[in-house]
């Protein structure tokens, strides 16, 4: 069914009344680079004043919730760390509460500060390598599986190297019971007007030689939604995913049985929306227009 | 058609008479780790004495032909650098003679000494990064495409890092005319009784975020065979690929229209051979038995 445009005041009010929780993508919805879209702060305040729960849902694994909050503060957007739900936190929550990871086990981490901080916030032991690499092929023999490792978690890592790949591979190849997790699978990320290889690219190097696929804790993969639903006990019928991308945000919400709202301030044009097989329930020019 | 076992003297002699050039895989055919199979040296000498051309065809990109020769010498196998045909050399030959790469252009290299040495042997200019990595996300902006780069060549690289990935991606993403090449696509390689992520794994991280596939200069990909045929002007009907793997060596030869001989000293068991849809023309217990 084609998406319904939210434009008339009464339609916007009726829509907002039907929703208790808004899951908001950030880039292309709240801001673009360092520009906050007009009216967004007003809408966030209005929704909160009506008792709506707001969660900022991001695939960015390099920052913890606390650290990501600084981005909001730098843009003068009111938010609290409790309203931020990143893929690193989703992974840590999943390991602690879904896997019920044994206390004597460790997670081998490929990733940056966001992953480490969120694992620590959930009290999960973790092991990682420094940036030093192997120097010769015969050092391969120095890679010995650490019996404490019960899971491998890969997030974006600017310091990825062969030693990390070889160790992560060794854990997952040698022990089929070792959990294989990734924060997200975005193949690229935007920066400086272009794109660069993202977590999904780094993940491809690890999953290609293994005959197994990771559990991915980012959009559009459902384990991230499972974690959000489990933590907040949300009523799916009264939860709306708001995003600017059809193949991640809207797909994520639709597969999960949520309501979905596409904003036209990001990557999706009206023409692309019309042509797509992925149709949100609603679309709106900007989140800033969602003023009930 | 099921493979024919070479066991009787007259069959072996008739087979050898029908072939001018033998393309020999090394690991599992000539040797296993540091053990040379019985009779192999005798067979190599016999074939040479009958005027047969021998080429050792290897996907290992970390060593140049000269450097790989040292492996033969260390195992007391008579061979010359001219008889060795590695994937790094195949890539260099392809760039020089098939692409007819302009002299004012450079190849951006992810790889080790083998790749560098073979590019130099063909007089091809190349650029690579040292092992230093990016330290912060905002250093991404320091990645500027070098206009001299007209091709990206990826081989196995123990010093792979994010900066190399980001640069290689930037060249290939920004310029669709920039050639995308890889020495081989083996997902793993054996070492110390286990396996580690191979060139194909590293390649996956680069090709996943691009909407293009590389030309691969290793078995079972045909560009490697095209290069061998072009260089030596071989008669395919009188050329035989000898290997221990059905999905690389035998597939390589069959797709290319060569005769194929499977040896049972490597990874393929008789039971696996019977079950496989890939059937070589002939099979033999060991290359050491090929005594006409």
From TrEMBL, chains A, B:
EC no. given is: 3.1.3.41
Q: Give, as one word, the top-level EC class.
A: hydrolase
- Kindly give the SUPFAM superfamilies that the UniProt entry links to this protein: HAD-like (SSF56784)
Q: Where does substrate bind?
A: 219
**Record's keyword annotation contains tRNA processing:** no
The record places the active site at 25 (nucleophile), 27 (proton donor)
Binding site residues for Mg(2+): 25, 27, 244
Question: What's the name of the protein?
Answer: 4-nitrophenylphosphatase
Species name: Geranomyces variabilis
């Amino acid at each position: 069914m084609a998406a319904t445009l939210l434009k008339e005041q009464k339609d916007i009010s009726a829509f907002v009344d039907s929703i208790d929780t808004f899951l908001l993508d950030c880039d292309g919805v709240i801001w673009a680079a360092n520009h906050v879209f007009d009216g967004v702060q007003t809408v966030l305040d209005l929704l909160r004043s009506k008792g709506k729960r707001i969660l900022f849902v991001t695939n960015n694994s390099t920052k913890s919730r606390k650290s990501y909050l600084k981005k909001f503060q730098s843009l003068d957007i009111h938010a609290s760390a409790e309203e931020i739900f990143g893929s690193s936190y989703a992974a840590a929550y999943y390991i602690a509460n879904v896997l019920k990871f044994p206390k004597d086990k460790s997670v081998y981490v490929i990733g940056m500060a966001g992953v480490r901080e969120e694992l620590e916030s959930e009290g999960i032991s973790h092991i990682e390598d420094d940036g030093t690499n192997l120097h010769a092929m015969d050092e391969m023999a120095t890679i010995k599986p650490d019996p404490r490792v019960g899971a491998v978690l890969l997030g974006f890592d600017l310091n990825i190297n062969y030693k990390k790949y070889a160790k992560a591979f060794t854990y997952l190849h040698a022990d089929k019971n070792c959990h294989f997790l990734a924060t997200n699978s975005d193949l690229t990320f935007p920066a400086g007007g272009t794109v660069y290889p993202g977590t999904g690219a780094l993940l491809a190097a690890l999953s290609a030689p293994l005959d197994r696929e990771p559990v991915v804790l980012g959009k559009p993969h459902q384990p991230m939604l499972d974690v959000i639903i489990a933590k907040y006990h949300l009523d799916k019928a009264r939860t709306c995913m708001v995003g600017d991308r059809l193949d991640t945000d809207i797909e994520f919400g639709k597969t999960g049985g949520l309501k979905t709202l596409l904003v036209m301030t990001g990557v999706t044009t009206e023409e692309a929306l019309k042509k797509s097989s992925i149709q949100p329930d609603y679309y709106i020019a900007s989140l800033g227009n969602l003023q009930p």
